[in-house]
Amino acid sequence: MSDVRLASPQGKWILLTTVLGSSMAMVDSTVVNVALPRIGRDLDADLAALQWTVNAYMLTLAGLILLGGSLGDHYGRRKIFVIGVVWFATASLLCGLAPNVGILVAARALQGIGGALLTPGSLALIQASFHPDDRARAVGLWSGFGGVGAAVGPFLGGWLVDGPGWRWVFLINVPLALLCAPIAVRHVPESMDGRSHGRFDVLGAALGAIALALVTYALIEAREGSLVVAVTAVAGVAAGVAFVLVEKRRPDPMMPLDIFGSRQFTAVNLVTLCVYAGFSGFFFLAALELQVAVGWSALAAGTALLPTTVLMLLLSARSGALADRIGPRIPLTVGPLLCGAGMLLMLRVGPDASYLADVLPALLVLGLGMVTLVAPLTATVLASVDVARAGLASGINNAAARAAGLISVAALPLLAGMGPEAYRSATAFDDAFHHAMILCTAILAVGAVIAFTTVRRPPPDCRRPECRTHGNVLAPPLEADRNAGRIS
C-alpha cells in the first residue's frame, strides 16, 4: 500500500495512466457499434457476423473480468495492468488489419481478454497507490474522465469511420497503449494483496465463458434450425450447470454462490440483467437504425447518441444523492420505466426522421431513465453484502451486466425477426428495429417490477459508492475494496 498524494507529480502520472487504460476499453465498447454497417459492407459480412463482432469482445470480457482482478492481486496490479494494456493494443492492431470477418471476430475475443485485465486493474491501482485522504477524489476524477472518454467514443468512432476508415476505430488504441504502458512502468508503484494465495478459479472462468459462448452461438445461429444449433444450446446449458456445481464445491471460487444468500443482492442483479439487456440491445441496434434506415452518416449517428452519456455524466452524482435520501426502490422502479418510454419514442424514428423532433426526445427520456437508476443500482449492490465483500459484489454485478448485454445482442435480432441481410435493407431493418424496441421495453418493465417488489432501503451504515460520476452506458461502475484495492 502506497501513500502517493494526488497533487504530487507521481499522483498525476498515476491518474493519467489509469484514465488512459480504462478509457481504451470503455471507448472501444461504444465506438464499434457505430462502425458496424461499414464493417459489414467492406468485409461482406451478414448480420450474424456483426453480432459476433460485438459479442466476441463481450464474451471474454464478461467471462474473465473477475479472474483479471484476482490475477492483479497476486502477481502485481501494475504488472497485470500493463500486460492488459499491451494485450489490448496488440489485439486492436489485429482487428485493424483483419482481412476478413473471421479474423476480426477472433481478434475481438483476444481484445476482450486484454480488457478483462486492464479494466479492474486501473481502479485497483488507484485504490492501492493513493493516500487514504486522496483516494476518494482520485476515484472521482478517474470515473469522471473515464465517462468523458465514453461520451467521446461514438463521436470519435463516427469521425474515424467517415474519415480514415473503420479500421482506425481499432488502430487508435495502439498509440494510446504506447503512451500508457511506459508511463505505468515508470511512475506507478507496484502493489499486490498479501492475502492472495495463488489459487485461481481457472476452471470456473473457463466453464462460465464456454457456457456463454455456446448459448450465444445457439441464439445467433438459431435461424438455421439445425441439429448443430440444438446440440450447442444443450451443451451451453450443461456448461452453465457445471459452472454452478464447480463454484459451489471449490474452496476459492471465482464467484462464491453464498453471496446470493442475500435476497437484496440477488434481486438487484436480476434488475441488472433486465436493464442492461435492454440497454445493450438498444445501443447495438440504434447505431444501425440511424445509418441503415434513417440514412445518416456514421459521424451523425455517433453524435446523435451523445445525449444519454452526457446526461449520465452531469446528473449521476445527484441521482445517487437523491437515492440516499429516498431509498433505492423508487429510482430502480421509475428508472427502467423511463428508459422503456424512451425506447417506445424511438418507434417514431424511421426514414427521413428529424433529429430534433424524433430522435432527441427519445434519447433525452432514455438518458434521464439511465441517470435515475444506475447510481442507486450500484449503491444497492454494495449495501446488500458485507463491507469486506463489496469489491466482489461490484465485480459480479458488472459481469452480470456484460453477460446480459451479450445475450441481448445475440437474441434480440432473432426475436425481432431480423434476417441475415436485414441491415442491407432500410425498410426491413426499420420494421425489425421497431419490434426490437418493444421487446426492450418489455424486459425493462420486468426489471421495474422486480425492483418494486423486492428492493428495500439499505441500512444506514452500509458501504457507499466511490464512483459518483459514471458515463458507461453498457455496464455499471466497478468498485474496489477500499483497504486492499481488490475488485474480486
Automatic annotation (TrEMBL):
- Does the keyword Transmembrane feature in the UniProt annotation? yes
Assign the protein's first listed, main location to one coarse class: membrane
Membrane topology (UniProt):
Multi-pass membrane protein
Its domain of life?
Answer: Bacteria
Compartment annotation: Cell membrane
Record keywords, A-Z: Antibiotic resistance, Cell membrane, Membrane, Transmembrane, Transmembrane helix, Transport
Return the InterPro entries for the record: EmrB-like (IPR004638), MFS (IPR011701), MFS_dom (IPR020846), MFS_trans_sf (IPR036259)
User: Which residues are in the Major facilitator superfamily (MFS) profile domain?
Assistant: 14-459
Spans traversing the lipid bilayer:
12-36, 48-68, 80-99, 105-126, 138-160, 166-188, 200-220, 226-246, 267-288, 294-317, 329-347, 359-387, 399-416, 436-455
**Keyword match Metal-binding:** no
- Could you tell me what this protein is called? EmrB/QacA subfamily drug resistance transporter
Q: Which organism is it from?
A: Streptomyces pseudovenezuelae
